[in-house]
């Protein structure tokens, strides 16, 4: 009986030792966080005339800038916009030099931008006179827009001076969060796990190579700045000044990566002795909760974000004007 018991104890001990010597599999995940918040900033100047009369203003008309946006033909997708598909009522074209090369510029008229602003004023309860109709009347009768607006009984002229669109890099102010999981020999992520300090250091050394890949991506943002004045049609006094800038991340980027490791004690290697560095599918960073369609071409992504920023700028313009917000 003693021999049997001793044999069982010995066998259990051998099994335990064998399990301790078995390789263990781990799934190490890292997430990149960009520590740069999108900008949503306004600047306003309120005059005494504005403060005295804002509650009396019921009707508006817009005056558009000459151009609202400049794009190169390349930005528009190159040959996907053949000349016979371009409406010259909505755009004009010229050439400019970029890095010493003649590049065709597309100057877009302001129909989309002005329509968004008119819609925002209408939603806020203002009577909106068509800017295109008023502009055409002024041109045909050789009058100024403000003279036609006065004749039509409009209270104020909202003069949009410019839309500035900028495409710039985001500073690499980033951090990484790492999580450790158990895995199996197929590299499947299982439960979270706590490990010893030496093993955690081993994990971090491997995942840093993935983090270098993530941080080497060029991340850009699109910003839109709107400049506007409001003019009292009867007195021709400029009663309100406005500037608004808003930004969103632009590029489709990877923000997550992982490695799968096989470890013997505190010593690890890539699973199957291969450099098993993975990145997740592209995650679109919009900088807000707005739902934006992701199109196949970069130019379409830019356009979608630009339209979203334009809508925000239009709403901010109207809300700040109506509420007398001072920044």
Give a written overview of the molecule.
By secondary structure, the chain is an alpha+beta fold. It has two domains: 23-68 and 109-323, Double Stranded RNA Binding Domain (2-Layer Sandwich), CATH 3.30.160; 69-108, no CATH class. The protein has seven helices and 17 strands. The chain starts with a helix and ends with a helix. 24% of the residues are buried. Mean pLDDT is 75; it is low at 4-20, 70-108, 273-277 and 279-296.
What portion of residues is helical? 25-40%
Number of domains: 2
Q: The biggest beta sheet, please?
A: 6 strands, antiparallel
Order of helices and strands: HEEHEEEEHEHHEEEHEEEEEEEH
Low-confidence stretches: 4-20, 70-108, 273-277, 279-296
Mean pLDDT figure: 75
Instruction: Count up the helices.
Output: 7
Question: CATH superfamily of the largest domain, called what?
Answer: Lipoprotein like domain
CATH architecture of the largest domain: 2-Layer Sandwich
Structural class: alpha+beta
Radius of gyration, CA atoms, in whole angstroms = 31 Å
Distance between the termini: 90 Å
Quote the CATH topology of the largest domain.
Double Stranded RNA Binding Domain
Specify the CATH class of the largest domain. Answer: Alpha Beta
Q: What global shape is seen?
A: rod-shaped
Question: What is the number of beta strands?
Answer: 17
Q: How big a fraction of the residues is strand?
A: 35-45%
Strand and helix layout:
Blueprint: H1 2-21, E1 24-34, E2 40-46, H2 48-53, E3 59-63, E4 69-72, E5 91-98, E6 101-108, H3 111-123, E7 127-129, H4 131-140, H5 145-151, E8 156-169, E9 174-183, E10 189-192, H6 197-215, E11 220-232, E12 238-249, E13 252-253, E14 256-264, E15 267-270, E16 277-279, E17 283-284, H7 298-323
Parallel strand pairs: 3-7, 3-8
Antiparallel strand pairs: 1-9, 1-14, 2-12, 4-6, 5-6, 8-11, 9-10, 11-12, 13-17, 14-15, 14-16
Helix pairs in contact: 3-7, 4-5
């Amino acid at each position: 009986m003693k021999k049997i018991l001793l044999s069982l104890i010995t066998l259990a001990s051998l099994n335990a030792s064998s399990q301790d010597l078995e390789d263990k599999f781990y799934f190490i995940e890292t997430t990149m966080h960009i520590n740069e918040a999108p900008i949503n900033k306004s600047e306003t100047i309120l005059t005494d005339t504005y403060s005295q009369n804002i509650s009396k203003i019921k009707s508006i008309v817009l005056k558009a800038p000459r151009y609202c946006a400049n794009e190169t033909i390349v930005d528009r997708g190159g040959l996907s916009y053949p000349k016979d598909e371009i409406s010259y009522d909505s755009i004009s074209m010229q050439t400019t030099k970029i890095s010493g090369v003649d590049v065709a510029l597309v100057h877009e008229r302001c129909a989309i931008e002005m329509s968004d602003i008119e819609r925002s004023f209408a939603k806020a309860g203002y009577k909106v006179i068509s800017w295109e109709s008023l502009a055409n009347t002024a041109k045909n009768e050789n009058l100024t827009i403000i003279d036609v607006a006065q004749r039509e009984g409009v209270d104020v002229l909202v003069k949009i001076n410019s839309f500035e669109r900028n495409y710039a890099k985001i500073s690499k102010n980033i951090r990484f969060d790492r999580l450790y999981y158990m895995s199996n020999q197929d590299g499947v992520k299982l439960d979270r796990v706590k490990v010893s300090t030496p093993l955690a250091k081993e994990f971090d050394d491997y995942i840093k190579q993935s983090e270098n890949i993530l941080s080497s991506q060029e991340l850009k943002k699109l910003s839109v700045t709107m400049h506007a004045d409001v003019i009292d049609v009867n007195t021709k006094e400029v009663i309100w000044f406005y500037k608004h800038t808003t930004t969103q991340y632009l590029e489709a980027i990877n923000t997550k990566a992982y490695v799968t490791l096989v470890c013997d004690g505190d010593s690890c290697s890539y699973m199957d002795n291969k450099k098993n560095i993975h990145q997740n599918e592209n995650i679109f960073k919009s900088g807000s909760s707005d739902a934006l369609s992701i199109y196949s071409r970069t130019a379409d992504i830019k356009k979608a974000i630009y339209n979203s920023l334009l809508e925000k700028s239009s709403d901010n313009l109207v809300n700040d004007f109506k509420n007398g917000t001072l920044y």
